[in-house]
Each structure stands twice: as C-alpha cells, then as structure tokens.
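Q: Could you write out the predicted structure for this multi-component system? I'm mainly interested in how the pieces pack against one another.
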Amino acid sequence: MSQLILILLLGGAVAGWSERLGRQFPPCVALIVLSAASLEFLSSVAPVLDQATGTAQVTWLLEERTEWISRFGIGFHLAMDGMSVLLVALTLLLGCVAVVSSWNEIQHKPGFFQANLLWTLAGTVGVFLAIDLFLFFVFWEVMLVPMYLLIAIWGHEDRARAALKFFIFTQASGLLMLLAILVTAVAYHQQTGEWSFLYTDWLQHPLTGSLATWAFFGFLLAFLVKLPAFPVHSWLPDAHTQAPTAGSVILAGVLLKTGAYGLLRFGVALFPAAAQDYADAMLIVGVAGILYGAVLALGQEDFKRLVAYSSVSHMGFVLLGIFAWNPMAWSGAVLQMVAHGLSTAALFMVAGALQQRLHSRQFSDMGGLWKAMPRMGAVAMFFVIASVGMPGLGNFMAEFMILAGLFKVWPLLCGVAAVALVTGAVYGLWLLQRAFHGPLASTSQNLVDLHARDMTAFAVLALGLLWLGLYPQPFIDLMTPTLNAIAKLAGG
Amino acid sequence: MTSTIFHGLLPLIVLGAAIVIVMLQIAWRRHAGITQGLALLALIMAMVALSPSWALGHVEATPLFVVDGLSRLISLVLLLGALVTLLLTDRWLRWQNLESGEFTLLLLLATLGTLVMVHAQHAASFILGLELLGVSVYTLIAYPQRHGTSVEAGLKYLVLSSASTGMLLFGMALIYAATGALAFVEVGKQLADADTVLTSAATVLVVAGVAFKLSLVPFHMWTPDVYEGAPTPVTGFLATASKVALIAVIIRWFAATGLGDGSVVNTALSSLAIASMVIGNVLALYQDNLKRLLAYSSIAHMGYLLIALVIFGGSSTGDLAVQAAVWYLLAYTVATLAAFAALTLVAGGGNEAPVRQDLAGLLWRRPILGLLFMVALLSLAGVPLTAGFMGKFYLVTVSVTAQAWYLLAALVLGSAVSVFYYLRLIYTLASKDDAGSTAQLDVSWLSGVAVVGLLVGILMLGVLPGGVAALLVRIL
C-alpha cells in the first residue's frame, strides 16, 4: 500500500519533469503512472479479497506499519478493508478519467498540472488507507495544497477567490480536527501513559464524557465541510465552477468522499455515543442540504454551478445514510459515494468539454447542441438520468437503500427527503433541455463532437454505473464486514 | 579553568578570538573576500568546537555561564543562522556597494552576543549579551547610510530597544532588591522569603522588556518599520537570531527562578500571547509590502511561541512545553530565514522593499527561489510535511495537555486568518503573469548552498521529525 502512494508521489514528480521532453508527454506519463498504481493495487488486493483478518472491531485485508515519529508513538500505519478498497479503486479510476479530460484543455505548464493532480490523488489514497490519525491528518492536508494549486493556477476567471475560499474552509475546519485528534491522543496518553495515534488503540480506550462530545464536534465539522453539508457548503459551488475540468472531476468524484469516509470510519466508530446523541440533528442537516441544494440547482444559469449544487443535494443523502444508523443505510451511503463520484465526474467532463468549445458555461449560450454534437448529447443524457436516479443505474440503488434504511428510523423525514427525487428530475431534465434541445443558439465554428478518447472514459463511467445499478451485490458484499464491524462499535 | 569548562565554553572562545582576528585583518588591509572567508571559517570552527561539549552534560562553566543541552542546541541554531546570513550577503554586499568589512564583523559580534545570552545564568551575562547583540544590530540596520529608511529604522530600533533594556534592567534591579541575588538559581532560592509584590512587579517589568524585543502586542509598534527599513538580510537575522536567543534565556530564567509560576505573570503572558496571535495576524492581512507582512507574521508567531512559555511557567508539563518551545523556535527560524533569503536574492541590488506584485510568477521565473519562498510560507502557515506543522503540533499537544483552551482558541483563530495572507502570496508566486520580472542576478554558489540548505531543513524537520524530536527528549 505504501508503494501505491509512493508510485503516485514519485510519478507526479516524473510527470512534472517530463514536460521538458515535450508538451504532449505529461498526460501520457500521468496515465502510465496511474496504470502502474492500479496494477500495484490490484495485485496486492486481489489475492486477499475474501480473507479479512483482524479482531471483532476491524476487518483488515492488508495492514502495514513503519515507525515514523516514535517520540509520539506515531507510525506510518496503513490498512485496507472492503470499504477502503472500493474508495481507492474509485480514486484511481477517476484519476485516469481526470487525466483524459485534461488532455487538450491544459496548455499552460501541463507538467506541473499533472504533478499536482497525481499528488492530490496520492493524498486521497492516503486518507482512505491511513489508520494512524496523525498520518490521516497529514494526508488530509497533503491532498489540499496541490488541489489549491490546481484551482489557483489553472482555474477560470475568478480562480483566486474560489481557491482561497476552498483552502480556508478546509484548513480552518482541519485545524479543529487536529485539535480533536490531539484531545483524544492526550486523553489516551493520560489513561495509559503511552502515546499513540492508532485507530485500533483508540478503540480500546474510548473517550467518554463531555470531552468526547467536543472531540466528536471537531471531527464532525471537518468532515461536514468536506462533504459538504448544508450550512458549510458555500466553498463548493465556487471551487467547482472555477476549477479546471480535471480539478472538478477529482474534487467532486473523490475529495468530497473523504468527508463521508472519515465520518463513517472515525466519527461514528470512535465516538459512537456522541454521534448517536446528535444523529437526529445530523439527519435534519442532511435533509436540509438535500432540499437546499436541489432548490438552488433549479435557479442556476451556469452549467457547472448547477452540477455543483446537485452535488450538495446528493451528498446530503450520504449524510442521511450515515446517521440513519443501520448497516442497510450505511451500505447505501457508501454506494452513493461511488455512484455520485462516477456520475458527477462525467457531468463535469461534459461541462468542461462545452466550456472548451463555447468558452462559456452559461445556458443562455447553449441550446440545440444535440444537433451539432449528438454523441455529447447522448452522453449528457445518460449521466443526467443516472444522477436523477433512474432505476437500473447506481445512484437509484444507493438512494433507495438510504431511504429504505431511513424509513425504519424516521418515516416522515424519509418522505421529505424523497421530495428531492422529484426536484432532481426537474433540474436534471431542465439542464438537458436548455443545453441540448431547442434551436441551435451558438454560432461557434468550434462544435466538434467528443473525441474517441473521451468516449472511452465516458463508457467506463457508464459501465460502472450500470454495474452498480444492476448487480450491486459484489460491492455490498465487499463492504459488509467493515460496516458490520462499525455497527458493533456503534452498538447499532 | 578546568578542561571541562574550557571545552564547554570553546565555541564562545573561538568566536571571540575570531572576531579579534577579523578586526585586525580589516585594520591591516581591507578586502571583502578575505573578511568573509575568515568569518565563514570562524562560524564553522565554532560549530566544530561545539561538538566535543555534547558529551559533557551539564557544565557550570562560571557563575555567569552554564553549558547544557539547551545552550548547545540553540547555539548550533544561531551559528547556522549566522552562517546562512553570511552566505546570503556574499554577493548582496557587492550589489549594494557595501563591501567594507565591518558588516561581516558586526554580524559576528551580534552572533557572539546571542551565544552569550544563550549561556547566561546570571543577570549580568544576560544583559551583557543582550547589549552586545543590540549595539551590533543597530549598526547593521543603519549600515547602508545612503538609504534614509535604513538610518531611520536604525535610530528607531536604537531608541526603543534602549528603553526596553532600561525596563529590563529596572526589573532585574527590583529582583535584586527583593532577593539580594542576580544569579538565576540564587534568585529562585531566595524567592520564598522575598516580597511578592516586589517580585511580581519586577517580573512584569522583565516580561515587558522582553516582550518589546520579541515584538509582542502591544509592544510591537517598532517591528514593521524596522523590518521594512533594515537591509533584507539583516531583517532576516534580526527576526530570528535575536528572538531565538532571548527565548532561550527566558526559558532558563523561568526554569531557574520559577518566576513564571505566579498567576500575575501567567495572566500577563497569556494576554500578550492572545493579543499577538490575533492582532498580528489580522494586521498582516492588510500589508502589501512583504517585509511588513513578514513583520506582522513574526509578531503572530511569537504569540504562538509564548503559549509554550506560559504553560512552561505554570504547570507540571514543563518538559513537553520546553520541547515545544524549542521545536517552534527551530521551525520559525528556518522558515523565516528562508523567506528573507528568498526576498534578499529576489530583490538583489535594487528593490529593498518589494511588494506582493513584485513576486508575481516567481515560481516560473526562478523556480528554486519560488519553491523556497512557497515552502517557507507553507511552513509558516503550518501545513503538514513542513517544520511549521510539527511546531503547531507540539504547541497544540502542550496546550491540550495543560487544558489551556483560551490560548488554543486564539491559536486556531490566528492560524485560520494567517492562511489567508500566506495563501494569497502563494497565489501570486504561482500566477501566470510575469509583470513582476526583475533583472536576473547571478546568485553565487555560496548563496545557493544556503538556499538549498534552508529548503532541505524545512522539509526534513517536517517529513522526518522523529530524530530531532527524540533528541529534544534526550537533551532538554
């Protein structure tokens, strides 16, 4: 696993350097690096996929540890279970998609661009694998800085403000998480006389009392910002709108998932009592996000902004799933992370392709594009419909499981959340209608249909969604041991 | 003088002797190259002279000086800082037309002053070191006499710094009145029988004097003006060496006298810390001039550092607090020196007061310098894998252990605000626009060594902090 991260980190440096050989090299190198990382990932995971080991509390497939800062008992400690396998796979897949989407778009310093892309991915993979909380925090920030640079250097017109907003939201909430981590670590130190930041050690000596609540809030806030949940989401529409296509793909597809992952893995498992105390409040926050995102999506004139607000809405479902507090809803939440990653990544690629051709993201400049670019129209329709929640595709499966899980707990709220399925259909179809139907509005000579390279990427994403929608059982089987273990910890 | 004492004090002796030699050399024949070479040799010899003393443990060298782990480590840091400053001024002096040897000589004298402070265990040696440092630094600041701003800054620093030394002396005198002692340990022993009103007043005076030199709010007014007016490499030296030495001597003073323990002192220090963190960071937001920006940022960083001293003065987690303070000093020193190194080499001969726009696209124009500046800023902002993050980590750990929630709140708030101006600067460094291009200066390989050394230092302390963290446990 450390090799996986190392490949991405060093590969980023190589991709950056390869610009000296020629402008066309960095994306190729990045793709090769990602393929190598995927091979390494598959070859290490495949043999152990059905041999989960560990205690009743955790079910690691793989685990490795290197000493790092022994003064504080900090180790470079990575472990992988079913849930992280899924999310790492998603990260690597969307990484390839992002590289493809940046192939022609990025003309300025392509080497440094691909380097930052790969470093962000390395940080994200690290977040999904780290079980030492110090290491987790380090990776949490490592994915932040290159992402900041991606937006700040290669973003659109208002990039400085958007990038700064993104960084400050994440950094400030991250500081609170660091505080929470240290509160827990110091409490552990006072209980046992040893320093440790290891997740499994902390499970042995859970924090109790009001300190646990405060520590939980520290984690919660960082994760809610990243997710993003309703009152702290405002960085997301700006960041998404201004980021280059590949940046949006990674941001929406992978980075948002780290928030949900952290909430499930650390928030719920380490502070079950505190988390359960605030579960109802979080459910309401989740529903508020769903409805708020959907309503705002209805009012957007900007393609990317619309997709961004729809992300707020869809990630609200993940929050619902987590705090519905049963394995069924949790499976739904994890499936939703993957499905939303695939469908939103595709929609941002469509937006990026349009921006490149029209130099605009406004619906007023679009209309009738189906005639000019039928392939793009078809692709957009597929992913809009997926994102709207068409049965047979991944997003439906996930949202259905979340709502079914929630129904057991709070039927009324489930009914309110389900309204979003309707509004989702409205803004989704409206997007299609305004961009692709009607008379052709643009006079641009530049309306070239999608390249075969892009079509391949879209096809992979579409297949993934179909698989998730038609036969999700393998994915559910993969994550069930993890979720059962968390359920045991959470007493749910 | 026994051989243990001789070995313990060897770095001071080497540096003192070297200063005499350099002075004679300048009197005999002026040659900038020879002077700089001798100074370089002197600093390296002093560092070599440190090495036999590591095995000696705690040495009571004289009633005035003590040699221990803290003094050795901080001496090494100070010598390295002086070395970096010297390497950076290699071409800079020529660009500025300042190639008379006195600049180098003054730098060595100032360094000797800091070393004296670091070893001081007596009010006399403390003041002696402080004044040796102060007088050299006034002159260094005003060294480019052609520039009105430099002279103004030098004068300002002279007047205000003398006033603050006056306060410090008055405080020491009150302590002497109360306890009849000047040696730190002796003061500690007599303290139980002393008049608490007198000692509290004395401590507050000492703290005020020190706060002045550390530029803590509300004693910070001089900082931006002096930082802006001083020649850039001198600003870097002033921002690091003088503060490092002062913090070291204050740690020793608190440890020996126990004067940091009282609730009055604690409240005073906490208020200074919180005010510095908040006000320093907020005012830094409004700065366009980079040296002023770094001045306000250093005010804020001294506020962060003070957290460790507050907790050290008033709790049982003393060891961890000292380690935190020392680590933060290391991180602050290397990052601040790096930032000023980048500014020195970018500004070169011409622009002594660069504004933000002058650095636009630096990352593309001069990648190594741009990278150095970016990493320095990330470290100051406390982003992981840099020295500054470990510093913040130590501070937060200490404050959580001591349950100092107010200080923590200010730390978090201040850091969140600081991200804004550091990031804005990084954005400028990476922006596409090349408007800020300045003349290409050829940087000597000596300065190159300093640049690479600083870069490696920041990253090593951040990526592999284990070794130094273990060292701190062993020697402090």
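A: Regarding packing and overall arrangement: The radius of gyration of chain B is 21 Å.
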